[in-house]
Amino acid sequence: MSRLPQHIVCLSTETVEVLYLLGEEARIAGISGFTTHPPRARKEKPKVSGFSSAKIERILAVEPDLVLAFSDLQGEIARDLVKAGVAVHVFNHRSVDGILAMIETVGRLVGAEARALALVAELEQSIAAMRAAGDARAARLGRRPRVYFEEWNDPLITGIRWVSELIGIAGGEDCFGELSVHPNAKERILADASVVIPRAPDLIIGSWCGKHFQPGHVSSRPGWDAIPAVRNAQVHEIKSAILLAPGPAAIREGLPAIAACLDRLAG
Fold first, then answer.
1. E strand segments, 201-258
2. What is the C-alpha to C-alpha distance for residues 7 and 215, in angstroms, rounded to an integer?
3. Residue 192 in contact with residue 229, Cβ under 8 Å?
4. Choosing a second label site near 267 at 20 to 30 A (CA), which of 73, 102, 133, 178?
5. What is the distance between the alpha carbons of residues 244 and 266, in angstroms, rounded to a whole number?
6. Quick check: helix, strand or coil at residue 68?
7. By C-alpha distance, which of 42, 89, 41 is closest to 64?
8. Model confidence over 16-64: pLDDT tens digits?
């Protein structure tokens, strides 16, 4: 009898994505209702939790032998599951390297280490190629364009670490990169919308978690007409499902999407 977990519940989308990419989706017994990658998972797997909230009995009903969770946001769920006797692994990755490490760990947990390492090598090659293209893009533009990335609008939140790093790989510079050291979103709240104006971003990218980004709403903020990105109509959306989950999709889809936004800037 295999000692590897056979009934895994994934409380965040990135571990679902990894298990599918490793060909180990048969082990998934339940997912979060906020799962986005791959889209087929929402049709194939029972939804047994939210993201930051869950009814423990719904999770226990699928008889998991392992639950994969993410960060302190799911800390209370993890605590209750541990009390119920369930094995729980809580990831807390916030960087591009952390995403790669998470993939390796998931692979080891399910006995698919070789496939996980191959996936990581593939992503590393993509990152290296995008970094070289980013350096060439910056050289072509004569600068590293300043990018303001907005993950939430009320209050304004920015500086999420893996996105900040992806902006750098693509050849840009995160206007609020200094905030990326803070894992907690509350520590990355901007005091007032006016603080963005002197940072003079060349490009604004929005990924509002769980709702559509509204470029017109952003551009009409008081004083923002002085921002180069607003003056030049360089205010764009990248879907939050692509960028705001620290998983392979952020690298595979999010990084090229950032690069495409940067390519819209005039040289």
1. 203-206, 235-237
2. 43
3. no
4. 178
5. 27
6. strand
7. 89
8. 999 999 999 999 999 999 999 999 999 999 999 988 888 999 999 999 9
